[in-house]
């Protein structure tokens, strides 16, 4: 029994000596674990932060084209006004809610030049408090250039950027915020051009061709003879 106690004491003494000799290493390991914990916490805080302005969103989120979730409040000619819905994590979220400010993000359909009819269509399609996903592609001042996705059913979603173009309610334009020589830029631009082409082939929206009778009527109404005739009729009535 005495020998066992002696061996245990000797082992503990050696462990203590090793720790003293490698104190800087032990401290470094402890500091490393602490830093790693802080990095994880900081990442969690960023993911759970409610963004109320485009300027609040970290540049890294935009560069990595992160997808965010939000709730649509209204649709205007400037874009979608969206309330960001952050990831919810127990304790962290409850603490953040005490100091988070209120505000809406201005989200625009990247690569799309909307017509007034397109704005009306979005106002009709997006119900109040509609939840959407918006993928960050670029940021211009206080507006975010995004791909906007709406869930349709449990396993499918619709890209509003493409859907608007398929309906002929806008024109495909350059995607602001992405490098023009990047693979993502050309992949998305091709998708938008295909959607626009479908509207063009089906004569939908702005691509709708006038009928023969409509063209004749427009030409007659704009002809010099018809303008003279209208002035003559107005003179007779006066």
From TrEMBL:
It is found in: Membrane. Its main location: membrane. Signal peptide: none annotated. It is a single-pass membrane protein. Transmembrane segments: none annotated. SUPFAM superfamilies: Staphylococcal nuclease. GO terms for cellular component: extracellular space; membrane. This is TNase-like domain-containing protein. It comes from Bambusicola thoracicus (Chinese bamboo-partridge).
